[in-house]
Amino acid sequence: MRNHSVKKGAAILIGALLVGGSAACSSGTPGDTSPASTGTADSSDFQAFLETAQQAVADATAPQTQTPPTTGPTPKPGLNIVIISCSQAAEGCSRPAGSAMEAIESIGWKGLLVDTAGDPTKQQAAVDQAISTGADGIIVLSIDSAALKSSIEKAQAAGIPVVSTAAGNDPDLYDATVPEGDAGYSDGYLMGQYTLSITDDAPSLLLTDDNEFAFVSNRIKGAEAFVEECKAAGGSCSVAGKQSIQVADLATGVPAQSAAFARQIQGWNVFFSGYDAALGFQMQGLEQASITQGAAVGFDGNAQNIDIIRNGGYEKATIALPMEWVGYGAVDQLNRLTNGEEPVDQGVRTKLITKENAPESGAFNGDIDVVPSYLKLWGVN
User: Which helix (H) or strand (E) holds 99?
Assistant: First the structure.
């Protein structure tokens, strides 16, 4: 199997998007609440650590300058593309699904959107059906590779290229990914660096994981690594507790579950959620339980979450992915692959969104309008 993904080593490459999942379950465990390292770090070590964090945050919140590719092949006519969405109920899946369908239709291809509603069995079946119906290409949106490995390999053996977003723990499985690889870990570490600024340099994180999805878990692992390095530098950072949720339970059990866990754990000052779709429901639960301590942070840059950030609400920051760009970029990768060409870096990057740099309205779709660039690239009037 050949992997075409472009690998970049930037410190803050793209995280991924929202998720799909399976049957609901949850757990919560207290974390390490020790405030600092017992090593030999002194104040100069922490000052250097703090200055590095401040620079990383400044870089991540600055205006983006990257653009989509400017050269590429003319699309072949009449292709049939299947888009497999993790769950259309989740904005991080529905937004790139919508933009990918829009891009497909602008080219003149036929697109079929399959909503798997977070069910791994349906996700695997959707790939198998795409193979049996002779699809010319498949786009997989925010579905962990572990659920699809055998089916993806069958598609590739049949000559059907597969492009993924938020590839999770196995980006090499796919013919291309948008964004390339999975930078959930570096995004989680970056968000940890940001929390220094909203906690007087002493963040105590209440972490929410969804271990159905490697890219979400990688964000949490990045945050945990940040805490350990902060403590080693002599800082007062800690993980107050950690809970696990599943996407199928977001609208039902998660609000109450999260409120109960937040009340159980003492001393936390940052509610650190693995993705914005979950955080929206979690904040509902906290509000209903009158739990207002500290602040919240999330990932993906959903519209409702950015509205809260923009208006100075409980969520203070999100690391946002330009979902419209993701959808168009995935279609461009398929265009290259179906023309026998190598995929390229689509320019998609995450951005740290705070009240100071939030878009004037809606979700984050990048700092430029990429649609005209892609239409020009494909020769679409």
Answer: helix 91-107
**Which of 40-44, 123-127, 213-217 shows the lowest mean pLDDT across its residues?**
40-44
Strand partners, 315: 296
What tokens were used for 65?
Answer: 């300058």
Which band of pLDDT confidence, cut at 50, 70 and 90, is reported for residue 43? confident
Per cent of the chain over pLDDT 70 is 88
Residue 233 CB neighbour total at 10 angstroms: 22
- R_g of the chain, CA atoms, integer Å: 21
For residue 160, give every residue at least 6 positions away whose Cβ sits within 8 Å of its Cβ, in sequence order, or none: 130, 131, 135, 136, 137, 138
List the strands of the sheet with 80-85, edge to edge: 110-115, 80-85, 137-141, 162-165, 176-177
Whether the CB-CB separation of 224 and 240 falls below 8 Å is answered with no
CA–CA dist 103, 327 (Å, integer): 8
Provide, rounded to the nearest whole percent, the portion of the chain with pLDDT above 90.
72
Distance CA 7, CA 255 (A): 38
pLDDT for 56 equals 98
pLDDT at 146: 76
Q: How far is CA 157 from the centre of its chain?
A: 29
Is there a contact between 126 and 152 (Cβ–Cβ < 8 Å)?
no
Which amino acid is residue 215, in one-letter code?
F
3-state secondary structure 323-361: HHHHHHHHHHHHHHHHCCCCCCCCCCCCEEECCCCCCCC
- As a whole number of angstroms, the distance between CA 217 and CA 231 comes to 21
Predicted local confidence at residue 8, as pLDDT:
34
